[in-house]
From TrEMBL:
<comment type="similarity">
    <text>Belongs to the complex I 23 kDa subunit family.</text>
</comment>
<comment type="function">
    <text>NDH-1 shuttles electrons from NADH, via FMN and iron-sulfur (Fe-S) centers, to quinones in the respiratory chain. The immediate electron acceptor for the enzyme in this species is believed to be ubiquinone. Couples the redox reaction to proton translocation (for every two electrons transferred, four hydrogen ions are translocated across the cytoplasmic membrane), and thus conserves the redox energy in a proton gradient.</text>
</comment>
<feature type="binding site">
    <location>
        <position position="72"/>
    </location>
    <ligand>
        <name>[4Fe-4S] cluster 1</name>
    </ligand>
</feature>
<feature type="domain" description="4Fe-4S ferredoxin-type">
    <location>
        <begin position="111"/>
        <end position="140"/>
    </location>
</feature>
<keyword id="KW-0677">Repeat</keyword>
<feature type="binding site">
    <location>
        <position position="130"/>
    </location>
    <ligand>
        <name>[4Fe-4S] cluster 1</name>
    </ligand>
</feature>
<feature type="binding site">
    <location>
        <position position="126"/>
    </location>
    <ligand>
        <name>[4Fe-4S] cluster 2</name>
    </ligand>
</feature>
<feature type="compositionally biased region" description="Basic and acidic residues">
    <location>
        <begin position="225"/>
        <end position="238"/>
    </location>
</feature>
<feature type="compositionally biased region" description="Basic and acidic residues">
    <location>
        <begin position="248"/>
        <end position="260"/>
    </location>
</feature>
<keyword id="KW-0004">4Fe-4S</keyword>
<dbReference type="GO" id="GO:0050136">
    <property type="term" value="F:NADH dehydrogenase (quinone) (non-electrogenic) activity"/>
</dbReference>
<dbReference type="GO" id="GO:0005506">
    <property type="term" value="F:iron ion binding"/>
</dbReference>
<keyword id="KW-0411">Iron-sulfur</keyword>
<dbReference type="Pfam" id="PF12838">
    <property type="entry name" value="Fer4_7"/>
</dbReference>
<dbReference type="GO" id="GO:0005886">
    <property type="term" value="C:plasma membrane"/>
</dbReference>
<dbReference type="InterPro" id="IPR017900">
    <property type="entry name" value="4Fe4S_Fe_S_CS"/>
</dbReference>
<dbReference type="GO" id="GO:0048038">
    <property type="term" value="F:quinone binding"/>
</dbReference>
Amino acid sequence: MSDQPYEPLRPKKGPLGELFAPVAGFGVTFSSMFKPTVTEQYPRKKTPPQTRYHGRHQLNRYADGLEKCIGCELCAWACPADAIYVEGADNADAVDGAPEAHMSPGERYGRVYQINYLRCIFCGLCIEACPTRALTMGPDYELAGPTREGLIYEKQDLLAPLAEGMLAAPHPMAEGTTDTEYYRGEVTAPTAEQVDWVREHRPDDPTLDAASAVVAGDAPPPVPDTHHLRPDQDRAEATRAAATQSSLDRRPVQTEEARP
Ligand code: SF4
Ligand code: SF4
């Protein structure tokens, strides 16, 4: 033990500081009293969170519509909460009798992809582990629901929507490319061969017209979807509606005898 008297590191207050010290804690209160009151109109009006907010996950696509996920399961292994379940499969088996068709560039794709939002702690380790930037996290924060099953998001819930001009998978990779060109961002639109392949195998595909326009130069190349808050009439709305209905169903039913 040292015999030196204790010297606090914080500089000593002056006489004015000493005078106001007992009420210094009210400084924040007083300054807040003169600020305008802001009432968020949630859920009628959704407020976008800060730019780097990490909310619901999204499985992204390349500009020609192929999925970025290659089913490698690295995200599932990185997850400390064991919230992700992935089953990969060979692209060659994606379409019976058409080994040239791909769901994603390369050999494998994510056939099954689930995130259990009852377990997820939104740490972001999964998106750091993803080698293709297939998995990212966006601003969507409406992740509550009345059932456990509803909070296990399947691949179709997580997959980014097809942007205008993209060609729905499965279809062949852009001719003359490997997965490396995809990773480097050198595939920027569907090609004529891809459009022809889809026209031959799925003539009713709704994405054909827009993709054909891109190939013909009549429309700009597709811009892969960035994260967004989901529109009102979607899963979040359905979840709220289900929750409301469920609480209505749980109300005690009054019998004739119980009524006054
Ligand atoms: S954010 Fe964290 S807890 Fe959630 S799925 Fe990713 S790794 Fe798992
Ligand atoms: S999201 Fe990324 S890390 Fe997870 S399986 Fe797909 S490619 Fe692999």
